[in-house]
Write a structure and sequence with these properties.
- The two termini are 18 Å apart.
- By secondary structure, this protein is mainly α.
- Helix 3 runs parallel beside helix 7 and helix 5 packs antiparallel against helix 9.
- Helices cover 75% and strands 0% of the residues.
- The protein is built from 10 helices and no strands.
- The radius of gyration is 19 Å and the shape is globular.
């Protein structure tokens, strides 16, 4: 598909301007933070009351899974609503939810997989581990691995792609910053949202963000980046 595929899919109509794009995105992101903080304060007690966890068990992993799924669904709906509020724009086209040919999807998945493997190898060689110890501890405390993986590899990524490579990307791409700004800025914001203070891990996530942004630009669809 041509590099300007995104522009083709964004017509007719035009996304929100930069100020509105960033303003609405900040509101959605902080709504996510507030939801997670408010739910986190009582989720342990809720799980015990519903007998989804035993008093002697840690509820950290289960709480993370439930909170992530609920907040991702609610805030994902806010992203879609923000896109629908723009006159003359179809939300699916706005957010890049168009179909992708199977061969094209496979090519991009392989390309991004290669990048992830290479960056993970660098992380392992330098740090001697792929995951921080706190994440290992959270996983070991999970009573329902299926729900945990649903939160980690489905709900959270779908929300993030709707917001970053969907809503924010479209707004930047339609501005004077263009394609380069859309790819670079969304990769940077997405990396910062993951809260990495370690320079190497920051660089790794940023590189992956650039790859995802290029995939979004070249295919015109975030279904690739979600996958």
């Amino acid at each position: 598909m041509r590099i300007d595929a995104l522009s083709d899919r964004l017509t007719p109509g035009k996304p929100w301007g930069l100020a509105a794009t960033f303003g609405l995105s900040v509101i959605i992101w902080y709504t996510l933070e507030l939801l997670q903080a408010s739910m986190g304060a009582s989720m342990g007690h809720v799980l015990l009351r519903l007998r989804l966890a035993r008093p002697a068990e840690s509820t950290q992993g289960m709480s993370f899974a439930v909170i992530s799924c609920v907040s991702a669904v609610l805030c994902g709906a806010l992203v879609i609503a923000a896109a629908r509020l723009r006159d003359g724009m179809d939300a699916r086209s706005y957010l890049g939810l168009g179909p992708v040919a199977g061969k094209e999807l496979a090519r991009w998945l392989i390309a991004i997989l290669v990048i992830v493997v290479q960056t993970d190898l660098v992380l392992y060689l330098v740090k001697g581990e792929l995951l921080p110890a706190e994440w290992v501890a959270i996983y070991r405390s999970v009573q329902s691995p299926a729900l945990f993986w649903l939160a980690l590899v489905v709900a959270t990524p779908v929300f993030e792609e709707l917001l970053f490579r969907g809503f924010v990307f479209a707004g930047i791409h339609a501005s004077r910053l263009g394609a380069v700004g859309a790819v670079g800025i969304t990769a940077l914001i997405w990396t910062m949202a993951h809260g990495q203070s370690d320079p190497l891990e920051f660089a790794v996530i940023f590189i992956i963000g650039l790859a995802l942004g290029i995939a979004r630009l070249r295919t015109g669809s975030i279904l690739v980046t979600m996958a």
